[in-house]
């Protein structure tokens, strides 16, 4: 279903923006096994979209390039889990709803697709059901759905610490033109963490006052994604795709999250679009998307 069709068919729509880990530092591990992280996160203009409509009975439909991947997912789908969790919290106000997910992002690709969908479901259903909940309540519901869901609910530049629940806005982060690239080969997040050589790495330490895009690019370049080396061991295509982005003129390349999506930052959107087109011509079986990220001032 095209985006304009989604807006026409459903009374309420929500964007589920791709989450980009500009930096990801693994700083420790809790006794319960969860890893402690410092992350600089931004969100892209591209992503999935969800539509919400009152219905006689709950319904869930799919479209988009990667919609078939989720077909038959049943109760494990984060959209349905978010619907059910919010319904438990609000009770009789939660009338039946038809939810449509336009799945444009690769599944399990390190850019928060499922978490962004869950967060958009919370936002969309709160609008459709005409309710507002305390910030603390919504944050608690989001965290129950997954460590990335609270930041995806915000969908703005931020620093996330702990397991992802300690969020601090970054209003000075500029927008970036970038290409998202994924070889459409799965990478196991638990296996990436298992292969991580050091679990107690230096924390993210950004300067208090970074000057413009150039200053931020330098700061991001000096940061890391600690999960990238083990992910490259598991999926050699990550190294290849990063080299391809660099060859097309990316100012900075890095893997996002636990992979396998990489991003390349370009000087402007025209350069990003040209690079994405060239990369698609070279590997039409892979995923390439030119986009811009949101700025801290939105």
TrEMBL record:
Record's Pfam families?
GHMP_kinases_C, GHMP_kinases_N
In this chain the GHMP kinase C-terminal domain maps to 222-281
Q: Where is the GHMP kinase N-terminal domain?
A: 77-153
Gene Ontology molecular-function annotations: 4-(cytidine 5'-diphospho)-2-C-methyl-D-erythritol kinase activity; ATP binding
Q: Which Gene3D superfamilies match?
A: 3.30.230.10, GHMP kinase, C-terminal domain
Q: Which SUPFAM superfamilies match?
A: GHMP Kinase, C-terminal domain (SSF55060), Ribosomal protein S5 domain 2-like (SSF54211)
Q: Per the record's keyword annotation, is Repressor included, yes or no?
A: no
Say if the entry is tagged with keyword Protein biosynthesis.
no
**Active site annotation, chain numbering:** 19, 148
Swiss-Prot/TrEMBL GO biological process terms: isopentenyl diphosphate biosynthetic process, methylerythritol 4-phosphate pathway; terpenoid biosynthetic process
Copy the pathway line from the protein's UniProt record. Isoprenoid biosynthesis; isopentenyl diphosphate biosynthesis via DXP pathway; isopentenyl diphosphate from 1-deoxy-D-xylulose 5-phosphate: step 3/6
Q: Which residues bind ATP per the record?
A: 106-116
Record family assignment: Belongs to the GHMP kinase family. IspE subfamily.
Protein name (database record)? 4-diphosphocytidyl-2-C-methyl-D-erythritol kinase
UniProt source species:
Rhizobium chutanense
């Amino acid at each position: 279903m095209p985006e304009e069709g989604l807006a026409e068919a459903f009374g309420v729509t929500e964007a589920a923006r791709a989450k980009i880990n500009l930096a990801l530092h693994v700083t420790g591990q809790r006794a319960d096994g969860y890893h402690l992280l410092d992350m600089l996160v931004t969100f892209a203009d591209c992503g999935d979209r969800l539509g919400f409509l009152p219905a006689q009975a709950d319904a869930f439909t799919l479209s988009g390039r990667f919609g078939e991947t989720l077909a038959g997912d049943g109760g494990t789908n984060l959209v349905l889990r978010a619907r059910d969790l919010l319904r438990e919290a609000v009770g009789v106000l939660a009338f039946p709803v038809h939810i449509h997910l336009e799945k444009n992002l690769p599944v399990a690709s390190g850019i928060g697709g499922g978490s962004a969908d869950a967060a958009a479901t919370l936002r969309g259903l709160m609008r459709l059901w005409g309710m507002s909940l305390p910030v603390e309540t919504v944050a608690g519901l989001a965290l129950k759905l997954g460590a990335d869901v609270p930041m995806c609910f915000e969908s703005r530049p931020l620093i996330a610490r702990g397991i992802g629940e300690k969020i601090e806005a970054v209003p000075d982060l500029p927008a970036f033109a970038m290409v998202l690239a994924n070889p459409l080969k799965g990478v196991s997040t638990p296996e990436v963490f298992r292969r991580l050589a050091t679990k107690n790495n230096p924390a993210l330490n950004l300067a208090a006052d970074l000057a413009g895009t150039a200053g931020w690019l330098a700061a991001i370049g000096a940061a890391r994604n600690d999960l990238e080396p083990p992910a490259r061991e598991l999926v050699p295509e990550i190294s290849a795709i990063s080299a391809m982005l660099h060859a097309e003129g990316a100012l900075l390349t890095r893997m996002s999250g636990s992979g396998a999506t990489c991003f390349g930052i370009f000087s402007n959107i025209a350069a990003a679009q040209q690079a994405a087109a060239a990369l698609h011509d070279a590997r039409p079986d892979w995923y390439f998307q030119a986009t811009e990220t949101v700025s801290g001032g939105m």
